[in-house]
Specification:
With 388 residues, this protein is of the alpha/beta class. It contains 15 helices and 13 strands. It has a seven-stranded parallel beta sheet, with helices on both faces. A six-stranded parallel beta sheet has the order 10-9-8-11-12-13, with helices on both faces.
Length: 388
Amino acid sequence: MKIAIVVDLIDNKTNGSVITALRFANGLKARGHEVRMVAIGADGENDCNVKERYVPVLTEVSAKNQIKFGKFDEKAIRKTFEGVDLVHFIFPFKLEKKCKTLADEMGIPTTAAFHVQPENISYNAHLNWFKPINGIIYSYLKQAFYKKFNRIHCPSAFIAGQLAAHGYKNELYVISNGYDPAFVPAQKRTTNKKFEVVMTGRLAPEKNQQVIIKAIALSKHKDDIHLTLLGNGPKKKALARLAEKNGVDVSFDFLPKEKLIKKLQSSDLYIHAATVEIEAIAALEAIACGLVPVIADSANSATPQFALDERSLFEDNNQFSLAEKIDYWYERDDERLRMGKVYAESAKKYSLEHSLEKAERMFADEIMDYNSTSSLKKMSLVPAAQNN
């Protein structure tokens, strides 16, 4: 297949959805498909490198969360779309809306992914206190963009359920974003000076890293624990101040893939404290490296799906509950190592290869249905005399 992917930007490797889009694109290419990107930073032979679109206020706010908006260039994008079998959309922003209109005009089948969780928007806009806001955003996204598609890629059963509950009538394909096969357990165990706890994710309100710091401060083993927060974002200074106030040993970093894998492989426990999460590939990568996870049991997160039992769940935003789980795993070294192997095995069903196979089926289903519908429309336009 020849597939075009529209994603606003691919030049920021700290954004999870961007990393997912690139992983999917490269995976599809490895499976023999031709993939063309429409994005800021696209540099392939048949790609379309769009310019950044400036939106007053929103551009500055979005930049803090590693988002830029692409500018629609009809002539250049039309050239990229020529000859493709399908166009797949990652985001629901203005570039995607205009590209969807163009694809429809050119008679090209389309699919979309649901990566922008309304709760992410409300948390970063500091509107999570206003309960109806998320329902309003779900409704807006449906009316403004998603109702124009027959098929939507949902990274988890959780978000598929949310869409169904908010009246989305599309065919929903539950397909994990898939983790990179390079994330595997270490062949040899590392001995650390301290008990190494790690979390990967943007340093943003909905990721809730502050509860980890508070929990470690409550731990019986506080002085023997080192926390590493891997990610960038607007909450970094506040988190550093909180750690200093509570006497928690913390480091901040952002690592390229190879170093990230080594860091995860050499750590002792992974905590995913996010209150809002569509899937959390970061948690899956840690699990694939053989780390036992402790995950916030949030009603707005899909990540609890990775927990194999209650020992890997803590009450959302409750530092006392998390402190108990940290102490439990700290004190049970042999059990933690045993369960790390079990967790690494459990991650395999979320492999990138499995996800790509499912995505191919979604694309093929859309192309087949689109072509069938187009043929029927053409037949209906043929005068009755010509049918005799």
